[in-house]
Specification:
With about 325 residues, this protein is an alpha/beta fold. About 30% of the residues lie in helices and about 25% in strands. The strands form three sheets. Strands 3, 4, 5, 6, 7, 14 and 15 form a seven-stranded mixed beta sheet that branches. It binds NADP nicotinamide-adenine-dinucleotide phosphate.
Length: about 325
C-alpha cells in the first residue's frame, strides 16, 4: 500500500510518499479501515517537527474516513463494508490504517467521506472547549483566536449557537470576512491592532468571559488583559509556538482561571467520545454547524498541505484525498 512516512523530524519535506508498504494487521479489538480521505490538523505539524515527539518512523494523520475492510474477532457492531470516521490514532495519511474499534463513528449516509474526515477531531474539540470549562450564559463574551481557521470556524459557529457574543481574531481582511460570515459579532485584525484593547473597547471594559486560544506564544500573555473579571482562558494549542510562562499571581487581580485542554483526554474513551461526536453530527444535521472544507489535496501533496497550513495560507479544513 501507499502511505506518507516520516523518518526524521523536520520541515514539510520529511513527508515522503512510500509505496509497496505492508498493510497493517488489525488486532482483535481493531478494524482495518480502507481510507478515502484523511483530515489535516495542526497537531500533525507538531508531530512532524518533533514538538510532540512520536517514535520514528511513522505515518502521520490522526483523522480519517473510509470503509471497513476487516474487523477484529472481538469487535461487535461493525462489519466489513461499513462507512466510518475516526480520530485519535496515528496513520491516516495512507491507504489503510488499523484503528481501535472504540474510536469508530458510523458515518451517516448524508455525509461524504470528505465531510467524514473533516468533522471528528475539530468538531469534538469545539464541543469540549465550549462545554467543559464555563457554562456559557446568553450574552457572555467569547474571544476566539484564529477565527477563520479549521478550529476557529467551528468555534465561532458553535459559540453563536450558544448565544454568546463572539469576538474573533484573524490576520487578514479576507479572513475577517470569513469569520464574520460564520457569525462573529466582531473581528479584530490582531496582526495590526492590540486585540486586548479592542476587546475592552468592544465590551465597554467588561472583557471576554471565555478566551479560547490555540495560537499560544503571540497571544497568550495579552489574554490576561483581554479577560473579564472571573474570566477563564483555555490554552489548547501552539500555532505560533508554545506560550511563554506567566506568573500565577498575575491571575489574582481579576480572579482569572486558566486551563489546558486536549481532545486526547476529553475523548479518551468511547463513552467520552461518542456523545461529543453525536453533538457534532446533530449540529451538522440541524444546519447551524457547517463544515468549511476549503482545500482537498492528493495524498502525494501532503508536504504542500503542511506548508500551506503552517504559513497561515489556509482557512477552514484541509483534507488529503487518499482514494481518487
Ligand atoms: N488541544 C486540542 O484538543 C486541539 C485539537 C484541535 C486543534 N488544536 C489546536 O488548535 C489550533 C488550530 O488548529 P487548526 O488545525 O484548526 O489550524 P488552523 O487554525 O486552521 O491554522 C492555524 C491558524 O493559526 C493562526 N496563527 C497565528 N500565528 C501563527 C503562526 N505563527 N503560524 C501559523 N499559524 C498561526 C493562523 O490564523 P491567522 O492567520 O488568522 O492568525 C492560522 O491559520 C492549533 O494550535 C491546534 O494545535 C488543539
Amino acid at each position: 500500500m501507499k502511505a506518507i512516512k516520516i523518518s526524521s523530524y523536520g520541515d514539510p519535506s520529511v513527508l515522503v510518499l512510500a509505496e509497496n508498504l505492508p498493510q497493517p494487521e488489525p488486532g482483535p479489538e481493531q478494524v482495518l479501515v480502507k481510507l478515502h480521505v484523511a483530515g489535516l490538523n495542526f497537531v500533525d505539524t507538531y508531530q512532524r517537527r518533533g514538538l510532540y515527539p512520536v517514535p520514528l518512523p511513522f505515518t502521520p494523520g490522526l483523522e480519517g474516513a473510509g470503509v471497513l475492510e476487516k474487523v477484529g474477532k472481538k469487535v461487535r457492531g461493525f462489519q466489513p463494508g461499513d462507512r466510518v470516521a475516526y480520530n485519535g490514532q496515528l496513520g491516516s495519511y495512507g491507504e489503510y490504517a488499523a484503528v481501535d474499534a472504540w474510536r469508530l463513528i458510523p458515518l451517516p449516509k448524508s455525509l461524504s467521506f470528505e465531510e467524514g474526515a473533516a468533522f471528528p477531531l475539530q468538531g469534538m474539540t469545539a464541543h469540549y472547549l465550549l462545554h467543559e470549562y464555563r457554562q456559557l450564559k446568553r450574552g457572555d463574551t467569547v474571544l476566539i483566536h484564529a477565527g477563520a481557521g479549521g478550529m476557529g470556524g467551528l468555534l465561532v459557529q458553535w459559540a453563536k449557537h450558544l448565544q454568546a457574543k463572539v469576538i474573533a481574531t484573524v490576520s487578514t481582511t479576507e479572513k475577517a470576512r470569513i469569520a464574520k460570515k460564520l457569525g462573529a459579532d466582531h473581528v479584530i485584525l490582531y496582526t495590526k491592532d492590540d486585540f486586548a484593547a479592542e476587546v475592552k473597547r468592544l465590551t465597554k471594559d467588561h472583557g471576554a468571559d471565555l478566551i479560547i486560544d490555540g495560537v499560544g506564544k503571540s497571544t497568550f500573555a495579552k489574554n490576561l488583559e483581554a479577560a473579564a473579571v472571573h474570566g477563564h482562558i483555555v490554552i489548547f494549542g501552539a500555532a505560533s509556538g508554545p506560550a511563554d510562562p506567566i506568573a500565577p499571581n498575575a491571575l489574582m487581580p481579576k480572579c482569572l482561571s486558566v486551563s489546558g485542554g486536549t481532545l486526547f483526554v476529553h475523548a479518551g474513551t468511547h463513552e467520552e467520545m461518542l456523545p461529543r461526536a453525536k453533538a457534532v453530527l446533530a449540529g451538522l444535521k440541524a444546519g447551524w454547524l457547517k463544515l468549511q472544507i476549503t482545500r482537498v489535496l492528493p495524498l502525494a501533496q501532503a508536504a504542500e498541505a503542511h506548508r500551506l497550513l503552517e504559513s497561515r495560507e489556509t482557512t477552514g479544513k484541509v483534507l488529503l484525498k487518499v482514494v481518487d
